[in-house]
Amino acid sequence: MIDDQQLLADLKNEKKRQQAFRLLVGKYKERLYWHIRKIVLNHEDADDVLQETFIKVWKNISSFRADSGLYTWIYRIATNESLSFLSQKKRKFSDNSEEINNYLIENLKADPYFSGDEIQLKLQKAIAQLPEKQKLVFNMRYFDEVKYQDMEKILETSEGALKASFHHAMKKIEAFLKTED
Amino acid sequence: MKTINKTNQNNLKEIPFVVPKGYFDSFESRLEKRMRTESEENRKLLRGKIIKFIKPVIGIAAGLIFVLLITNVLFKDASTWVATEQSASFVEVQYEEELLANINIADLDEETFYEVLTSKDDSLVSVNSSETIITILTEELSDYDLCAEIIN
Fold it and tell me: Is there a contact between A22 and B18 if contact means CB atoms under 8 Å apart?
C-alpha cells in the first residue's frame, strides 16, 4: 500500500495525478464512508457526501500545505461536508432540530441498510438528539476510537474541550436511554 | 452506560449500518463519471458566461465602427463638395482675372465689356494673347502645311 507522502507527491505531479487520485480513493473510501454514514445516517446521503468529499480533495489538493497529515485533512473535509449536508436538510425543516432528528430516526427505521437491533436503534436515537459537535466527538471517540490528539487537528478544538464534549455527550445519552426505558 | 450490560455494550460498538452489494467496488468508476459530468457542465457554463459578456462588447464595437464609417463617408462627401465648390469658384475667379488681364478694357464699351465677362466663349478671352492668335490662324492648316510654312 502506497504511503501518504508518496501519494501526495504524485497528486501534485500533473502526469501522475490521475493515477494517484485513484489510489487515494481506493485507500480511504471505506473509512471515510463509515465516518460520514454515522453523521448523516442514510446510505444514499452518505454516498453523495463521500463523492463531494473526494471532488473537493481533487480540486484543492494543490493548495494542501501538509500542516497536518493527508488523511487528517481529508477526514476534516468529510466532516465539514457532512455537517453542511445536515445544515441544508435542517433548512428544509425551517431549522427545527427536533423535527429533523425525528425525520432522520424515522428514516433509519425504514432504511433497508440499517442492520441494528432495538438497542442500537435506541442509541442512534440518543445520538441524534445531541448537538452537532457533541455528536461528532461521541461518534469519533466511541465508534472510531480516534485519539484526542488527532481529533484536535480534525475538529480544530482543544483536547480539553473535546474531552468535556465527550463527557457531556455520554451523560445526555444515558439520560435519554433512561427515559426511553 | 449503566442501563446496558457487557454483551450489549460490545454490540453497541458495532456500526449498525450496511451497504448495497458491490458498493465499494464500483465507487471509483461512479466517482470518475460524476467528475467528468461536472467538468463538462462547468465548461458549458463558462462558455455561456463568456458569450454573455462578449455579446454586448461586440455590439458596442460594431456600433462604433458603423458610426465611424458613416462619419467618414459623410465627411469625405462634404470635403469633396466643398473642394469642388472652392475649386469651381477659384476657376471662375481665375477665368475672370485672365479675362481682365487679356482685355484692353479701354477699348471696350460697357455692353461689350459685360458680354465678354459673362460669356464662356474662350475666343473672346485672350484677344491680345499671341498664342491665341497663332492658334486661330493655324486652325485651318494641317501639320504638313504648317511645317512647310516654317521651313520656307
Answer: no
| Cα separation, B97 vs B104, whole angstroms | 13
Quote the CA–CA distance of A10 and A33 in Å, as a whole number: 24
pLDDT at A56: 96
d(CA B56, CA B58): 5
Find the CB nearest A54 among B2, B13, B31.
Answer: B31
Instruction: Dig out the grid coordinates for B108 from the structure.
Output: 471696350
Main-chain phi, psi angles of B103, to 5 degrees: -105, 135
Are A67 and A152 in the same domain?
Answer: no
Tell me if A43 and B20 make a contact (CB, 8 A cut-off).
yes
**Chain mean position to CA B28:** 59
A48 DSSP assignment: H
Q: What is the pTM of this model?
A: 0.66
Quote the cell numbers at residue A45.
Answer: 446521503
SS3 content of chain A, % helix, strand, coil (to 5): 80, 0, 20
Specify the pLDDT at position B111. Answer: 75
Is residue A52 domain-shared with residue A121, that is, in the same domain? no
Identify the pLDDT of residue B51: 85
Q: Is B113 helix (H, G, I), strand (E, B) or coil?
A: helix
Is residue B110 scored above 50 in pLDDT? yes
CATH number at residue A49: 1.10.1740.10
Whether residue B17 lies within 8 A of chain A, CB to CB, comes out as yes
Query: What's the domain range around A180?
Result: 117-181
A27 and A106 assigned to the same domain: yes
- Are the beta carbons of A25 and B15 separated by less than 8 Å? no
ipTM metric: 0.85
